[in-house]
Amino acid sequence: MAAFSEFRPLSDSALMVEYIKSTPALSSKLGDQFDDLDIKEVGDGNLNFVYIVVGSSGSLVIKQAIPYIRCIGESWPMTKERAYFETRALREHGHLCPDHVPEVYHFDRTMCLIGMRYLEPPHIILRKGLIAGLVYPLLAEHMSEYMAHTLFHTSLLYHTTTDHKSAVAEFCGNVELCRLTEQVVFSDPYKVSQYNRWTTPYLDGDAKAVREDNTLKLEVAELKSMFCERAQALIHGDLHTGSVMVTQVSTQVIDPEFAFYGPMGFDVGAYLGNLILSFFSQEGHANEENDRKDCKEWILRTIGETWNLFEMKFVALWNKHKEGYGEAYLPAIYNNSELLQLVQRKFMTDLFHDTLGFGSAKMIRRIVGVAHVEDFESIQDASRRADCERKALNFAKMLMKERRKFQSIEDVVLAIRDVQ
Amino acid sequence: MAAFSEFRPLSDSALMVEYIKSTPALSSKLGDQFDDLDIKEVGDGNLNFVYIVVGSSGSLVIKQAIPYIRCIGESWPMTKERAYFETRALREHGHLCPDHVPEVYHFDRTMCLIGMRYLEPPHIILRKGLIAGLVYPLLAEHMSEYMAHTLFHTSLLYHTTTDHKSAVAEFCGNVELCRLTEQVVFSDPYKVSQYNRWTTPYLDGDAKAVREDNTLKLEVAELKSMFCERAQALIHGDLHTGSVMVTQVSTQVIDPEFAFYGPMGFDVGAYLGNLILSFFSQEGHANEENDRKDCKEWILRTIGETWNLFEMKFVALWNKHKEGYGEAYLPAIYNNSELLQLVQRKFMTDLFHDTLGFGSAKMIRRIVGVAHVEDFESIQDASRRADCERKALNFAKMLMKERRKFQSIEDVVLAIRDVQ
Ligand SMILES: Nc1ncnc2c1ncn2[C@@H]1O[C@H](COP(=O)(O)OP(=O)(O)O)[C@@H](O)[C@H]1O
Ligand SMILES: Nc1ncnc2c1ncn2[C@@H]1O[C@H](COP(=O)(O)OP(=O)(O)O)[C@@H](O)[C@H]1O
Ligand SMILES: [Mg+2]
Ligand SMILES: [Mg+2]
Ligand SMILES: [Mg+2]
Ligand SMILES: [Mg+2]
Ligand SMILES: [Mg+2]
């Protein structure tokens, strides 16, 4: 494969075909038929190039990282090694939760290229489904399954200290992506930054208020420290609704290039926070055809069910493996059911509060930071959009500051309703 | 140096001389004079062999790790790679605080051997000085300096994320020593373990009570998680009063073989916890010659001064470097003195509570766990010893459970006095 002995973008179709032909793990997925290949670049994400390759006898997706951030350009360099960590995480999480992670067929470190299962139509990005007002009855079940399995099994509740520390060490290598999160989630929204933007002029005062809110800055500092220091589990690292592809019966989590050992609450919070953003955006999409009431109710129910199912499944895994290799809570110490319940309740309460904290940070940054969400962006009328965004922003600010007072996800849902 | 191309213990003096002769960094410290060398093994520690080498024209110390825990024997294997991490920490901390860390002359990874400055008499181990009822007027000044500099400069208050994560990754390699701490500090005292011991029969009920105290077990689980997961700074990892050598004018910290990126409070707590143990042991050493009253007062004063000076120096370093490379609190965000003071107060309060938590864990394990402290062990009368130990144990249990209620070190000192 001398032609690909050093990195080159596969933007040219002929080159792509050549690459696939020379890679048995890929060509076999196409039944070695290359005559009528349809190759389409579909990367609507912020960072990478994604090619769908469909032939008469099979299909696959090629994702390739480039040495900068796609949506910004070469002025913001970013290691293409991220493809390695994405692959590691896809494989690890895929092993733990095969039903909800696409299979990796092939990885090429030199080319920063992943070959994986094509999530064929009707799979669409969850965010787009939510914007269209669609509902997904199995979503809470599936996403709680994914989060419970991936987070539990990569934590010290399941790992030995030895395995944990060596995995932590390896994912320390994904530091550039961690730094990017630190900047765009925990820093930029709270200061003047060239990359920040918001629905101006409507939210000028709101953005300024964020930058001048001492209490908020105190809270976000604590969350940032936890993000930087706490190696609790192998987290996805970018688990918003744009990293989930869905049909009515299937839920698939893609794009874990930000994966590293970090706090569990960052994943759960990112996901729930993006559902809450979707909720607040619905008002902006309501029209005479569809008032979005059912959809909004479904989102609130899904938020509640996702956390409650997650908690239930996580604790069930804990109970199932309580005599296993995990070194966090030794059975000889946590040796009676009253005590075990006590530590589990404390663990889940702390994780719940972390989730609310990180979730609110992720909401705030999507309204006054660099990367916005299509849920709001697709609301054409700027004033109407700003109204939705302001409600979400105010809710997120309150949630970050008051998160420790919330006892249950039902309390959170009630508070969301209160905003209306 | 073919003779030393693989690991061998240097227990034989002739071999030791041969080794030194073949190692310029060591032989030069002896002025290349080998005729009248005095070689003495003085390892009174639990893990390694320490040789003092004194000649007519110089001196040095050789510390060698062996592949098991010395005080237990070959039945408890322990990686001799610990010498590598000890050297890394001695050099890093020595660079940050040269006045209080002995210079490393030489490190041999194959031989697991460190050559370092001989801390010549009247240097003695601080613990032994405290047992003898001696006082050290500069101790609080020096130890607060050591802790403030080593902890601040290896945290994200000073490091970039990039430097931090790569250092964290490297010290993940010291996992066997971390596991040992997890076991003997956070686990064994709270369960039946063959290695546990206590002053029997006097403390039989007390040891049992620890094993049956659900609230205590809940708290120690939280501390253990923080120890395992939180890469806050390069900590010494074994900072008890047996890892400090002192004279009236000099304070030197040795033996950081447990070093890794962990919570700062583990170091500060280990040190203060051991001072508190010393305080409670004094009653057992009081006699007609010396009622230990002055010494006890000095210990309490030193506890207070150590924390207060540490806090002052730590915050001063923070202020000095607030526009530096550290990525935890960006100056553009924490941009007014009111806010900066707010985050600093929160940071120091959290660190204070971590310190009290880890300090109490370290106290408890020294009374009902495998490794005891000479402060108590040297009290001949078992009943008298048990009385001292029980007071310390009860204080530690209370402190672990109630630590978040303490506002200042003065409150802690008052609570210690209350035990009397
Ligand atoms: N396995 C796949 N099957 C089908 N479509 C995919 C697949 N992976 C990615 N895509 C499409 O490509 C888009 C970008 O992929 P993503 O992994 O999110 O890239 P980025 O890292 O640039 O955000 C997704 O939003 C989705 O539409
Ligand atoms: N640099 C030194 N100078 C003088 N004595 C030392 C020095 N290093 C160690 N020692 C002596 O050796 C003993 C054991 O050393 P230490 O490093 O604590 O070993 P261990 O890791 O086995 O606990 C110390 O208690 C001290 O008496
Ligand atoms: Mg994406
Ligand atoms: Mg399943
Ligand atoms: Mg991505
Ligand atoms: Mg020692
Ligand atoms: Mg030691």
UniProtKB/TrEMBL annotation, chains A, B:
InterPro entries: Aminoglycoside_PTrfase, Kinase-like_dom_sf, Methylthioribose_kinase. Pfam families: APH. GO terms for biological process: methionine biosynthetic process. One of its GO terms (molecular function) is ATP binding. Its EC number is 2.7.1.100. The keyword ATP-binding applies. The keyword Transferase applies. Keywords: ATP-binding, Kinase, Nucleotide-binding, Transferase. It comes from the Eukaryota. Residues 39-272 form the Aminoglycoside phosphotransferase domain. Homodimer. Belongs to the methylthioribose kinase family. This is S-methyl-5-thioribose kinase. It comes from Trapa natans.
